[in-house]
Amino acid sequence: MNGPRIIVLLLLLLIIVPGAHAVRMIGGDDPVVVSEPIDDDVFAGGGMLSIEAPVDSLVAVGGEIDVTAPVRGDVIVAGGKVRIDTSVGGKVVVAGGEVTLDGPVARNAVVTGGEIVFGPNTSIGRDAHVMGGSFRNEGRVNGTLQVSSESFVNRGSANVTRYDEVRDRPDGPNPIDGLLSGIGALISFLVILGYLILGLILLAICPSTASILESRVREQPLPALVVGIASIIAAIILGMLLLVTIVGIPIAVLLWLGVVAGIMVAGLIVALSVGRIIARVVKIGENRFVHFIVGFIVLNLVYLIPLLGGLAKLLVVSIGFGVIVMTVLDRVSSSRGTA
Questions:
Q1: What is the rounded distance in angstroms from the CA atom of residue 128 to the CA atom of residue 302?
Q2: What is the mean pLDDT of residues 92-109?
Q3: Is 276 exposed, middle or buried (0-12, 13-18, 19+ CB in 10 A)?
Q4: Confidence band (pLDDT; 50, 70, 90) for 324?
Q5: Is the omega angle on the peptide bond into residue 31 within 30 degrees of 0, that is, cis?
Q6: Among 224, 234, 199, 215, which residue's Cα sits nearest to residue 324?
Q7: 131: exposed, middle or buried (Cβ count in 10 Å: 0-12, 13-18, 19+)
Q8: What is the pLDDT of residue 85?
Q9: Planar angle of CA 74, 80, 84, nearest 5 degrees
Q10: Closest-CA residue to 271 (of 226, 227, 323)
Q11: How much is the pLDDT for 75?
């Protein structure tokens, strides 16, 4: 299950880092239509999404996605039905139920889906990797065409073609298990995406507070770590003591809800701080949203490492929660002093 998540996170990072001075996010009521050129990297989502004007690069999630205008960089999309009938200046990564690619791609193509078609106008500059139920190729792959599917109709051409037939095995895994596994992977991805969106919203609403918190992460990581661990343990113990009395039960519930909310925000604060540290090294501009996205992706990649990922998550949550507690205590102390 970690494989697809790693691929998605890495590819998002590859899109953002090289020229991430501006990011355009598009979404809203269906249908979502891009009808004017956008000289930025575009993140879009909607039930029905149509790209009808040139963009720099595209990351999109939707029920039905139709790309008919040139994309200067990479295209990474996931949807129920995906069609790309245009030129792509970078690589193409697609996951969908029905996928049709019918235009030139300058670099590589990675496609997974139920029904996949490379139309006659398709030309892949380098390699193409296709995984799915059925695949029909009518285009040209200049490098290696690697196919793993139940059926493969090849009316096109490739420098090298490799085909691994996927067969149904009666003694294989239960289809229900596969369905549950797929649902679990989808939920996992949606949770990550939800946290990313939450962080961007909080960053837009409270930019000054976010800046104060993340700077404290960089300046006082060790004190924040100690305070964070101590505060979480103290909240658990205090909540259990409050549960002894009827009056204390709602107070304990509110206390624990506050801790959960703080833990959720803690990782987002540290992600912003990590992104700003990376930005200073690789020089990706001063856009705080880009800093957060880069830091968020890097942390989630680290979380996938066995053992180290769990330890990293514990440290991130503790430091972020400690920073929140320290900042709240400072403000309470300051307000009492002025009173």
A1: 28
A2: 91
A3: buried
A4: very high
A5: yes
A6: 224
A7: middle
A8: 95
A9: 35
A10: 323
A11: 92
Q: How many C-beta atoms surround the C-beta of residue 321 within 10 A? A: 27
pLDDT digits (tens, 9 = 90+) for 269-306: 999 998 888 877 766 677 888 888 888 888 877 787 77
Tell me the two tokens of residue 237: 């113990």
Q: Do the Cβ atoms of 276 and 291 come closer than 8 Å?
A: yes
For residue 108, the surrounding DSSP H or E stretch is none
| Lowest-confidence pick of 5-14, 164-173, 218-227, 239-248 | 5-14
H/E segment holding residue 230: helix 221-242
Closest CA to 321 of 203, 212, 231: 231
Contact 119, 135 (CB under 8 A): no
Distance of alpha carbon 203 from alpha carbon 292, whole angstroms: 9
Distance CA 145, CA 160 (A): 6
- DSSP E strands in the chain: the ranges are 23-26, 32-34, 38-51, 55-67, 75-84, 92-101, 104-105, 109-118, 123-124, 128-137, 140-154, 157-165
Q: What is the pLDDT of residue 66?
A: 94
Q: Enter the tokens of residue 160.
A: 């090298």
What's the predicted TM-score (pTM) here? 0.52
- Report the alpha-carbon distance of residue 100 to residue 82 in Å, rounded: 6
Give mean pLDDT, residues 222-246. Answer: 90
Q: pLDDT at residue 331 above 50?
A: yes
Tell me the two tokens of residue 59.
């990351």
Burial 158-189 (b: 16+ CB within 10 A, else e): beebeeeeeeeeeeeeeeeeeeeeeeeeeeeb
Q: Is 251 left (phi over 0), alpha (psi -120 to 50) or beta?
A: alpha
In the chain, what are the domain boundaries? 2-165, 175-338
